[in-house]
Fold EXPERA domain-containing protein.
Amino acid sequence: MDPGLSPGLDPAVSVVSLVSLLACLVQVAAAVLLTHWFGGRSSTEDRWTLLWLFYDVIVHVTLEGPFVYMSVCGSVQSSSGPLAELWQEYGKADHRWLVSDPTIVSVEILTVVLDSLLGILLIHAVLHTKYYRHFLQISLSVCELYGGWMTFCPDWLMGSPNLHTSNWLHLWVYLGFFNLIWVLVPGLLLVRSWVALKELSMLQTDGNQGNRKKL
């Protein structure tokens, strides 16, 4: 038996994959705790938004940050350590993450620096009901969606030579789930911002009409 495999489990699931998924659950738990701590008095909708934002920033800083460092200083494939093993596991689904692919690294540098900053500022805006909340929410969501597009589109145009989809774990969990949530949630936040801005516009219109009647 391969020493990396977990006895009694699907051969697709290794010890590294289990530990990697457990690490993701720890990140979710940290986001839940931060949301409860800082956003306990927020509305239900805002608490869900904060949960996502805390998780988003945690992932960008604690996972993608080290990836950028390893890729700029060498490559994930040549690196060692727990985080290197985590990314090497993900690299089984998308080979580009192992070899410092310029497109991937460029997108990730922007993600780690810009998206993390926008996420932190947006958390502050949500918690303190700042007027610029939806400007940041739209900006961050567009950045996340653009990052996802630029991550996969170049490889799709070449016939997906770097994507390995024969393994259900790689296809549905690594490539599917962990990328689709960065499409679904930003999309929902864009819709929420659109609704909020529409409501604000209607209030302003009603206010202007009321002022005209008084005149």
Remarks:
- The two ends are 85 Å apart (CA to CA).
- Residues 1-6 have pLDDT under 50 and may be disordered.
